[in-house]
From TrEMBL:
Heterodimer of an alpha and a beta chain. It comes from the Bacteria. PANTHER family: 2-OXOISOVALERATE DEHYDROGENASE SUBUNIT ALPHA, MITOCHONDRIAL (PTHR43380:SF1). It catalyses: N(6)-[(R)-lipoyl]-L-lysyl-[protein] + pyruvate + H(+) = N(6)-[(R)-S(8)-acetyldihydrolipoyl]-L-lysyl-[protein] + CO2. GO terms for molecular function: pyruvate dehydrogenase (acetyl-transferring) activity. Keywords: Oxidoreductase, Pyruvate, Thiamine pyrophosphate. Residues 40-329 form the Dehydrogenase E1 component domain. Its EC number is 1.2.4.1. The pyruvate dehydrogenase complex catalyzes the overall conversion of pyruvate to acetyl-CoA and CO(2). It contains multiple copies of three enzymatic components: pyruvate dehydrogenase (E1), dihydrolipoamide acetyltransferase (E2) and lipoamide dehydrogenase (E3). One of its GO terms (biological process) is branched-chain amino acid catabolic process. It holds the Pfam family E1_dh. It comes from Geothermobacter ehrlichii. This is Pyruvate dehydrogenase E1 component subunit alpha.
Length: 354
């Protein structure tokens, strides 16, 4: 009765675009020149929106804000693979996904200014509200995917969360359910190496986060999260599998949070500046820009023009947000339930009439 291996597993990592902007042609996704330029413009929009948000916060014109600096490829690359019918379940650090899907800029500023009306999603977009409570949206995303499967919608659900989110029970429950019921959901981990001041190595003893998929019987892959082409390719394949009824997948985008956790944090207190510098050299925008330049699709003049155009858009979005009248007492009650409960009706009366 010898002891024998009954199963063995491997974890793969996908990289397509290197730091010099060179691609592995064998792995190059089917994207034309216009797609590549569009991806770059979206990453640039994400970076400049983010920068403006940080400035506004410092001027007292925005609430606490979580920067996405350094994570643009993970966000734009994955969102670029979504189809209009698919659903996006965000955590809270997915600005680039919102922008890629065409969410109104002023409403994003509005939300981070503490006005929940910024989350009133336009009818044509399928976006769940931002979820600040770490990982709690994961089971909801799985439920939505299961519902889509029952209805035969032929769509996929993309559920985003961070490395910290993988330590929540919700993550394990969600992946387990998704595997058992073959829910059409793609779990996208933005492993940015930190959960506030807790480093990735304190989150799990596992070598990768991608391998966590194995225990739930679903495919898992790690991608270079600063490589927009690898992120796009892995997400596109996973979404396609989901839409075809082939079940869930997990993608670990290995990236880095270059900024503080939020504007209420000071990361210099807990991390080595050399680590930050190392990751700065792996800037996801620079890589794609180098590829575009190699192919004659981008140059310094186009860069200046694109930045100016984006800055004008941001100016308009901020002006619009700042001209929005404050929410009323009624707004607090308006969006939680379809109909007010008797207690809420009483509370609303009390608030209005004292
Ligand atoms: C249930 C819960 N516990 C704690 C917090 C406080 N908190 C906010 S963000 C965060 C870390 C999240 O880390 P990660 O999932 O890696 O996402 P990242 O912030 O790096 O994008 C914590 C602990 C929270 N929002 N929700
Ligand atoms: Mg993190």
């Amino acid at each position: 009765m010898p002891k024998k291996t009954i199963a063995s597993f491997a974890v793969s990592r996908l990289e397509i675009l290197d730091e010099q902007g060179q691609v592995d042609e064998r792995l190059m996704p089917d994207l034309d020149d216009d797609d590549l330029v569009r991806m770059y413009r979206l990453m640039l929009l994400t970076r400049l929106f983010d920068q403006r948000a940080l400035h506004l916060q410092r001027e007292g014109r925005l609430g606490t804000y979580p920067s996405v600096l350094g994570q643009e490829a993970s966000q734009v690359g994955s969102a670029f693979a979504l189809h209009p019918g698919d659903w996006f379940f965000p955590a809270f650090r997915e600005l680039g996904v919102f922008l890629t899907l065409g969410y109104p800029l002023s409403e994003i500023y509005q939300y981070w200014n503490g006005d929940e009306r910024g989350l009133l999603c336009p009818e044509n977009l399928h976006i769940f509200p931002i979820c600040i409570a770490v990982g709690t949206h994961i089971p909801h995303a799985v439920g939505a995917a299961m519902a889509a499967r029952c209805r035969g919608d032929g769509i996929a659900v993309a559920c985003y969360f961070g490395d910290g989110g993988t330590s929540k029970g919700d993550f394990h429950e969600g992946l387990n359910m998704a595997g058992v019921f073959q829910a059409p959901v793609v779990f996208i981990i933005q492993n940015n190496q930190w959960a506030i001041s807790v480093p990735r190595r304190r989150q799990t003893a596992a070598t990768t986060l991608a391998q966590k998929a194995i225990a739930y019987g679903i495919p898992g892959i790690q991608v270079d999260g600063n490589d927009v082409l690898a992120v796009f390719q892995a997400t596109r394949q996973a979404l396609e599998r989901a839409r075809q009824g082939e079940g869930p997948s997990l993608i670990e985008c290995e990236t880095y949070r270059l900024a503080d956790h939020t504007t209420a944090d000071d990361a210099r207190r807990y991390r080595d500046p050399e680590e930050v510098q190392r990751w700065q050299r792996r800037d996801p925008l620079l890589r794609l820009r180098r590829l575009l330049q190699r192919r004659g699709l981008w140059n310094d003049r186009l860069q200046v023009e694109a930045e100016e155009e984006i800055r004008r858009r941001l100016d308009r979005a901020v002006a619009r947000e700042e001209a929005t009248p404050p929410a009323t007492v009624e707004d607090v009650f308006r969006y939680t339930y379809a109909e007010l409960t008797p207690r809420q009706r009483r509370q609303l009366r009390e608030l209005k009439h004292g």
